[in-house]
Amino acid sequence: MRTVCTTSGAGGCLTRVGCNRTTPPASGTRSWHLRRTRCRVREDGLTMWIARIELSNFKAYLNQVFQFPEPGDGKNLVLIGGMNGHGKTTLLEALYLCLYGEDATHHLARAGLKENAYAKFLQGALHGSAQGARDRAMRVSIRLMVLNDYGFDVTRTWYFDPQGKYLSQEARLDEILDGVSRPLDASEKLSTVLYEHVVPAHLAPFFFFDGEEVKKLADQDRSEWVKQGMESLMGVVLVRQLRERLGQYQNNRRQGALAKDKTELDKMLAEVGIKENERTHLGTDLAQCIENIRQQTERLETAQERLINIGAGGGNIKSVEDLIREEGEKKRELDECEKMLEKLLGDRLPFHLSEPALHDGLRYRLKTERRLIEWEERKNGLEPEKQRFAERFLENDRLAHFSRTERRGLEIAITEAWESLFWPRPVDCAVDVLHGYLEPRQRQRLEEAQSVFRVGATQIRELARRRADIRIRLKELENRRIQLQGVDDDGALTKLNEELRAIQEALNELNRNRGDLERRLTSLESTINQARADYERENARYLQAEPAQSVARKAERVKALIDELLPRLFEQKTRALSAKVTERFKALAHKKQVDRIEIGPDGTTQMFTDNGQPLRFDRSAGENQIFATALFAGLADVSGYHIPLVVDTPMARLDSTHRHNLLEYWHSDPQRQVILLSQDKEVDKALARCSGWPCWWRTFASIFRTRRSRSMCCKQRCVTTGVAACSC
Description:
Elements: H1 29-44, E1 49-58, E2 61-67, E3 77-82, H2 88-100, H3 118-125, E4 137-147, E5 150-160, E6 166-177, E7 180-184, H4 186-197, E8 208-210, H5 211-218, H6 223-234, H7 236-252, H8 259-311, H9 317-348, H10 356-394, H11 404-420, H12 440-449, H13 457-484, H14 492-544, H15 550-588, E9 596-599, E10 605-608, H16 621-639, E11 645-648, H17 656-667, E12 674-678, H18 685-690, E13 696-702, E14 704-705, E15 710-712, E16 719-721, E17 726-727
Parallel strand pairs: 3-12, 3-13, 8-11, 11-12
Antiparallel strand pairs: 1-2, 1-4, 4-5, 5-6, 6-7, 9-10, 13-17, 14-15, 15-16
């Protein structure tokens, strides 16, 4: 829960933790009671839970109500089980759409659901029997309870025309106190309720997600996803939007300036915008290329599995499987080695072509210019105080009898004394600034970078030797695989090898295209930064020359503060996230080699042993999924929200030990409600009893029958409309 102290003084605080007021004020008794409720929530460590989900005409659900009890007595897990296509993922989609409306579509993909246009998704979600009925409306209602006697009902209704086309929606928010509901203005209060009692939309994917997508994430490059998660965690998107709005505000404040200056600045800003649009297109192409690589990788894995199955007839399945796995690992190592060699030769080696004296001269020049800038900033910052001091001094009553000549002499003496504080300049100051185009952050980065430009021949030789060894090993593996695949009765093996070769060639081409796009994007990013620096410099000069634009200068300082704040915020949050991910991974994994996990600002992850050495080992598919699950858990912990978890397909591809550890983690916080949307094979009775059957509050079974859209509970044989959700 997020609460803010809004009252203080003799009456006491009504919202902060530790409020001791026991009697209501003379008026506003209901408001006082609700604020006291929030105090108790924070003091007792309780958390919100989902008490009911009601669906009407939503996909496979015609009219269905799920009711969940409050976590307590060591029971906090709720299991909703069923076969594929029986409406488990539909519950997760309904949760997003009811709470967040249009905002849900931006976060469905990160939660593991398909990101479709809002209207298109709604039209496809309308129950078939409702399209021809008079009541062409779809509704989802969720009851969120904070305490037994206090909570909220969030209801969202969508309306359609006779052809099933989406028309409009209506959001309703009701406050529940002691069983009595009171309507609130959803347009004003819903966002506040979600922020204080649930979670904002951009953080929801850390708590409501599809476990199948965790499995896919485990097989892909996680750095970009982790970086996006950290940005959502810190609200970076909102901060960047603020920076853009400050730039627009600053541009508007230039109205009325000289036409020539404004035209030049607008032209520079337009050029920056064109380059940023080009960067957006390149980013879209890169994302599409990465998606194509993922699809081709899945095809490659499918073909390799078929190859393993063919080899099984000769008794060589283990050998073929090991060779294919090692061959894939060596190819990844080769790509990684070539990227490192390319980066070493392209980024650091060119600096060895210049003389050391040039580097030393640049370093000394930057140092003296920095001293000059600091000296001028100090002098200019105190200049207004000198004038104020002189005026106050000469206005003193004791100087009233001084003549004009004597006052003039005093003014000269004050000026000379003031200037003596700053003159002569410090001996280590530059005479003037040659590199005025550099911003303070760029100066600092350039000074720090001088020490990392060095590269030795040993590094280059080591990478070249490693690349040669990998290529030799790849050739050996390929020859051995061909020997093991010698039996070819019906030509299927030859055809499969040709398909495998074609997929590999396509994958190599896509990887080359990805590298080209990444290089172009990096180059364009550098060009944009330089163009924006030029614009900011000229804009700063313009604002400095126009005293009337003081407000715009304040906006410029806020933008600079944002640019300086974000890297520090990333550094602070990555430390906290690394600690939480390490804690969760140790609890979930059954291997104990990992002592700590470090996450960089760019989203990269690295494991270390207890002696501080980087840990490199080949994780299995299940271990990769456990690692990705630990990332989700760490991000949720660092967010500061303590709300229910809703997980679809939570434990696919995990062995019994990992499943047991995962259940133990979910049960470790008995006050947090955990709703699992599971397949029939994920959580069986043996696993549940092994993990402590008393931790389960309630289990549901959903058996969907297409005929007449009816279903039957697996044990009690109670017939309901839509999909069954009955206590078993």
